[in-house]
Specification:
It comes from Wenjunlia tyrosinilytica. Keywords: Kinase, Transferase. InterPro entries: P-loop_NTPase (IPR027417). GO terms for molecular function: kinase activity. This is Uridine kinase. With 209 residues, the protein is α/β, with parallel strands linked by helices. The protein has one domain: Rossmann fold (3-Layer(aba) Sandwich), CATH 3.40.50. The chain is 33% helix and 20% strand. The protein contains eight helices and eleven strands. Strands 1-11-10-9-2-8-3 form a seven-stranded mixed beta sheet. Strands 4-7 form a two-stranded antiparallel sheet. The protein has a two-stranded antiparallel ribbon with strand order 5-6. Helix 1 packs across helix 2. It is globular and about 45 Å long. The relative contact order is 0.24.
Length: 209
């Protein structure tokens, strides 16, 4: 692992994204447990990429959850449902990822689909993504689902750090992350892996190949 400052981490990831061809578009994901703060890294990448000449569209997986009747069918604290049933993969593919496919994509994406707090559709308007544009999606448990991305970043936490940094009212989700590690192996799946046991002192996991 290579220690790196949070600021340099953003610059390195932005350089890597900007170096990719991205024709006509590029789809990237920042994956990690809420305790790893994937949303913060995704947000921090927006301006550096724009400075590198790449238009950016930010989308959050939390805006593509299924209705409460599906998510909570087995109760409010079912870790297996959290892993399997919460994310509306079909909606995310249909409205965000497939429209940015190089083979026949329209370039028009829906930035949000479902307001989980209100449990209703967001009624958002479609956005046109310019050629060369980058979609940055952040979320939890995103890898191992065969979602189409050109670049994936996984923010990794040790089991101990994850337990310590997960809010008490969210600790019921911990078995889902154990299962994620066992079944999806996100640190093997991702293009870029960052260890964030201490968010002030991240470390890039350098791998051959």
């Amino acid at each position: 692992m290579r220690p790196i400052s949070p600021e340099l981490l953003v610059e390195e990831v932005a350089d890597r994204v900007a170096a990719l061809e991205g024709k006509p578009w590029l789809r990237m994901a920042v994956d990690g447990a809420a305790a790893a703060l994937p949303e913060d890294l995704a947000d921090a990448l927006v301006d550096p990429l724009r400075l590198r000449g790449r238009p950016v569209v930010r989308v959050r997986a939390r805006d593509f959850l299924r209705p409460a009747s599906v998510r909570l069918e087995h109760g409010r604290e079912d870790a297996h449902a959290f892993y399997e049933d919460w994310l509306d993969e079909g909606g995310l593919r249909r409205e965000v990822l497939d429209p940015l496919d190089a083979d026949g994509g329209t370039g028009r994406v829906l930035p949000s689909l479902w307001d989980a707090a209100a449990d209703r559709a967001t009624r958002a308007s479609y956005l046109a993504v310019p050629e060369g544009g980058v979609l940055i999606l952040d979320g939890t448990l995103l890898l191992g689902r065969w979602l189409p991305f050109e670049l994936t970043v996984h923010l990794s936490l040790s089991a101990g750090a994850l337990a310590r940094r997960t809010a008490p009212d969210q600790r019921w989700t911990l078995p889902a992350f154990e299962r994620y590690e066992a079944e999806a192996a996100p640190a093997d799946e991702a293009d870029v892996v960052v260890r964030v046991d201490d968010p002030r002192h991240p470390a890039l996991v350098d791998r051959d190949g």
